Amino acid sequence: MFNLPSLTYGYEALEPFIDAKTMEIHHSKHHQAYVDNLNKALEKYPDLGSKTIEELVSDLDEIPEEIRSAVRNHGGGHFNHSLFWKIMTPGGNREPQGKLLEKINDTFGDFEKFKEQFGASAVGRFGSGWAWLISEDRGQGSEIRILSSVNQDNPMMENKEVKILLGLDVWEHAYYLKYQNRRKDYVDSWWNLVNWSEVEKSIS
């Protein structure tokens, strides 16, 4: 059985960038529903209970067809949101340091250009989905890339070897109470919350 992870901060802690009511509904209702529906899907296949959520969503071809869509959607929702909560912190850390900043500068030119491209990916995702920063091994060392995905998909579903560094939820339930249809305003505000110290742990 999977469980809803506790937050390390209160629902009001990310104000004014994400309001307390949105955080409460997003965590206690939406994320809880993903957990509940994932557990329900796995009831017929208790042997899958020994797998981590990363193993489930990165190897969907091994999931019985009867529940594959449910694991993709609800397992993806559980994994994605669990990461999302961890990479935010009250006050944020204004920009990354060390190896991650070096890779951002090498790949995108500088941090501001990276934010522009990542923001464009988030704002440009049609409908519901996520924007991602990933790291993948290219043989001569790792490279970082920006991607986006639909619904609760994530890059591990296509390539289990990638490392997800950063993910931004652009489902309307993540921002609509405060920002309504102004997704760009939400994306721009979100940079104030990124916990770059946490993100840097995943870079190699």
Detailed description of the structure:
By secondary structure, this protein is an alpha+beta fold. The protein folds into two domains: 20-86, Orthogonal Bundle (Helix Hairpins); 98-200, Iron/manganese superoxide dismutase, C-terminal domain (minor pseudopilin epsh fold, 3-Layer(bab) Sandwich), CATH 3.55.40.20. The chain is 46% helix and 12% strand. It contains eight helices and three strands; from the N terminus they run αααααβββααα. A three-stranded antiparallel beta sheet has the order 2-1-3. β1 (129-137) and β2 (142-150) form a beta hairpin. The protein is globular and about 50 Å long. The two termini are 31 Å apart. The mean pLDDT is 95.
Give a topology summary.
Elements: H1 20-42, H2 53-58, H3 65-86, H4 98-108, H5 111-124, E1 129-137, E2 142-150, E3 163-169, H6 176-179, H7 183-190, H8 196-200
Antiparallel strand pairs: 1-2, 1-3
